[in-house]
Amino acid sequence: QVQLVESGGGLVQPGGSLRLSCTASGDTLDSYAIAWFRQAPGKEREGFSGINDSDGRTYVLDYLKGRFTVSRDNAKNTVYLQMNSLKPEDTAVYYCAARAGSLPPGPPETFEYIYWGQGTQVTVSS
C-alpha cells in the first residue's frame, strides 16, 4: 500500500509560481498512475492533471495547459506539479492520488483513485 504526502503549497502573489511535490512511501511509484485534484471552498473536487505509470504520458485540462505541468522522478518516488502564472481562482487545496496501472483517459475522476494524500493549501492573493 502506498502513502502519499503533498508539499510545496503556500501563499503566492498573482502571476507567481509554485511547485508541488507528491512523495510516496510504502511502495515505488513507477507502477502507479498519479493524478492531481484540487478543491476550492464550496466547490467539488476537480481532477485536472495526471501522469501515466510507465511511459510518462501526461494529461492536463485544456484551460490549464500552458500554465500547469506534471512530471515524475521515479528515482525520488515523487511526482511534481509545476504551476506558473498563478491566478486567484487557482486558490484551493491540492491533492495527489494514485492508482495501480495506467492513467485513464480524460479528466481524472475521484472514484478512479484509491490512495490519497492529505492535501496542501495553495493561496493566490496579493
Can you describe this structure?
The relative contact order is 0.32. Helix content is 0%, strand content 48%. The radius of gyration is 13 Å and the shape is globular. By secondary structure, it is mainly β.
Key traits:
single chain; mainly beta
Describe the protein's topology:
Blueprint: E1 3-7, E2 10-12, E3 18-25, E4 32-39, E5 46-51, E6 58-60, E7 68-73, E8 78-83, E9 92-100, E10 115-116, E11 120-124
Parallel strand pairs: 2-11
Antiparallel strand pairs: 1-3, 3-8, 4-5, 4-9, 5-6, 7-8, 9-10, 9-11
Strand content: over 45%
N-to-C span: 40 Å
Oligomer state equals single chain
Largest sheet: 7 strands, mixed
Mean pLDDT: 95
Rg, Cα atoms, Å: 13 Å
**Helix and strand pattern:** EEEEEEEEEEE
The portion of residues assigned to helices is: under 10%
Compact summary:
This protein is mainly β and 126 residues long. It has strands at residues 3-7, 10-12, 18-25, 32-39, 46-51, 58-60, 68-73, 78-83, 92-100, 115-116, 120-124.
